[in-house]
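[Automated response] Your request has been received and processed.

Submitted sequence:
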Amino acid sequence: MHRRRRLHQRTKKTNHPESTDNNRRLTPYLTQFEIWGFALGSSIGWGCFIMPGTTFLPEAGTAGTAIGMAVGALLMLLITVNYHYMMNRTANVGGSYAYTRDAFGYDHGFLCAWFLFVTYVAVCWANVTALPLVARYVFGGALQKGYLYTAAGYSVYLGEALFSICAVLAAGVLLITAKKTAARIEGILSFTFFAGTALCFVIALLNHPAPTLAPAWAAGDPPVSQVLRIVAVAPWAFVGFESISHASEEFAFSAKKSGKILALAVIAGALCYILMVLQAVLQIPEGYAAWPEYIGSIGSLSGIRSVPTLSAAYESMGNAGVALLGAVMFSALFTSVIGCLIAAARLLYAAAGDGIVPVALYRLDQNSVPRNALILIMILSLFVPFVGRTAVGWNVDISNIGAAIAFGYTSAAAYKAARQEKNALMKAAGLAGVIISVIFAVLLLIPNYISGSILSAESYMILGGWCIFGFAAFRIILRWDKENRFGKTMVVWIALLALVFIASLMWGRQATVRSSRDAADELNSYYVENYHIERSEENVVREEALTEHFLERIDRAYLHSSTIQAIMLLITLVIIFNVYSIMRMREKEIEREKIAAEERSQAKSTFLSNMSHDMRTPMNAIIGYTEIASRSNVTEEERIEYLRKIGLSSKHLLALINDVLEMSRIESGRMELSEVSCNLRQMMDDLNVFMLQQAELKKQSFTVDASGIRDACVRTDALRLNQVLINIAGNAVKYTPEGGTIKVTATEDHGAPEGYGDYEFRVKDNGLGMTKEFADRIFEAFEREHTSTISGIQGTGLGMAITKTIVDAMGGTIRVVTAPGEGSEFIVNLRFPLADDPEAEECGKECTVDLTGTRVLLVDDVVINREIAMMMLQEAGLLVDTAENGQEAVDKVAGSEHGWYDAVLMDIQMPVMNGYEATRAIRALDDPELHSIPIIAMTANAFEEDKKAAAAAGMDGHIAKPIDIGRILAALSECIHREKRADKTGE
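Generated structure:
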């Protein structure tokens, strides 16, 4: 038969790939039939044939057992859905451990692996030590040779111990030397015991003259409690079906088929349990009226009669039935040993790959078998037969807890993965699996309220000890964790601590009840022996009932107190965990802030380094050309050219300073938008005029197309929008080589709400372009792409960050389409309210008057500023008076005649009296002609809040330094024109 190779490959690399021999890895070889046998064989063992008489029938009767097993199987089928989902999502070796590690981290992975390992080895040990017991019933006392001692009431014989050891060695050697043969044997034996179980039931049914299962329920507790007792042991009854997830790398078929295999294994397992219970009831020995009478006397029986399933086989078929069921039992036990060895070895192999256990266990031999892991488990198993069957049973009890933890973690991982993938159905399955697992754990750990007492006192003690051992192991792992993968959460510590506390409470309860019962028995015996009290059968029954009543009261009182203590502890642990989580979150936040601060510091250091270079370049030009221009041998034509270059360098230096100041305002949250009416077509024309000269210097083609705009007049922050367009267009010119092409287009989209317009601005060039990595960061502050091609281009790395912030503040979007060598296209989408002001149609048109002969008062405390401004104003035909501070300005205005000063140009930061104070003083003058004089701020305080502060002080305009004579004249023209219009209106 042709075997298809596994479709899924490992998605997570282990941490120690160098530890494998010759880079070998687990190889696909398991067929679907073998995997089904692996799942069924691992889950069915000794308990299927023994527990009908010791647990199932006494606790729940036939109906309770059948219903409980069916319900348990349905719950397990839901768990299989989560395992199937995870096996298809990842092909990692390690099963539940791998899913937990990948979903929740190494700490949770450790907790899952810690309990899952003890589950597998406990089930393996239980079945390997049960082999001699089957031999007792089938072959008599042939193996009961060499009595050694009695451990916990169980007689240990050398012959039986050697038989168990041989079984372990046989299974281990088979798996190491002939894994394919072992897989075939696993499949064949699993099918054999499943078919043999069904055959034994059918024969028992046919041989019974009047088949009856009555009574359906056990005496005492209500049916619901009886069913829940069986459901509570479902993790133990079915654990092992999921063991195939540890061998998912070794499937010789698609993992998509694993769901069907898991479901068939669970259903087959449930049938085995139910059929064995029904068989035990159908054929009871002679002398018993019904199964309750027979089951109640098992403790006083021996041999085949003490095992109801074997007794039923004998009643149906005689010795042949015993031989048949014995073969079935041997098959079930041996398949369970093989299956658990495989699962435990793969679990150790996966854990070793992550450094949880020694790396030596992460080695594969020439047959791709984790030999060292198998050998370790075999060595540990060699000593188990000598501790006695009773002690082994105590370990088996805690396998319920391990199974519930593994099922819960796998379901939680499935839920998390489904949530990420937005798979609603699997989210529901994962959440249901988590809830079911939690209920299983509660029913097992907190007995008697619903499910009845499940674990023995010794089992609780072993559970607590295993948790404490887990603390120690985790400490060792944490200490030697060089990659800082562990110690990320307190969940592991809290979970182990809670289990230790609960186990100790329940152990104390069980031990107290047992001691009380022994004390009551001894007290009765003492009075009978020493006072020769005659006890009739009726008195004995009454005394036993009274004793049982008192013991039950003690039991319930202790259980109540223990439960309250457990709840209080859990609440405390939850609060501690919450407090710790808050502390951790704060620490992480502080750490993130520290990292972010360091990154910002590094970025700003880089930025300052770049700024130092970028600012020195124009400064060098200014200083150098100023020195050259001052030489006597320079011609007038050369001097004019030098001055022109000084002017260009000065403007570039001013742009650098403005970018830095603008970014500082943005980071401090002080950037505000100021909406005014503006004309977008006029703005695009101005952009064309502004950028065209720069483009022509590089022989570039620069075009602006605003024909796609229908509604040109809008309300927005015109200055900020202009800054956005200039930044993008300026970058296009800067990073496009000579002879390149830059095209700016503005269009108006359809579909905007009434009263609004949707506009798209595109700036496309055929320049250098950008890498995808840099394009993703271009809107971050201080970012510049450093390549040999553009290393000589000056810039701060702030322009695009400022642009993005402005666009965001306007409620728009900006994106870039680019590739190295293919140019870039920036696309800005904005929505503006349409301007309904009648003056909107005139926006962008300057209103000017002839300023020749206009007298202004220039107020500035810096001599050179006054000299430069005065020269420029006088060249424009204005008459200029000056003042050195605000107080002098107030005095001059107050002492002037009406109409002497047409306007005041007021600096802000001055000694004696600043510009704001001087303006308020002028506005406070009694003379209406003087206090209404136009005052324009001419200052280095250039931000929007500075404009608002100037207006609040009573100023009529605001001009930012350095001095631009065109802007000064425009502002003066506007103010004087406004005043003249006001005068005419007043007339």
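Summary generated for your ticket: The longest helix spans residues 537-629. The longest strand covers residues 756-765.
If you did not submit this request, please reply to this message.
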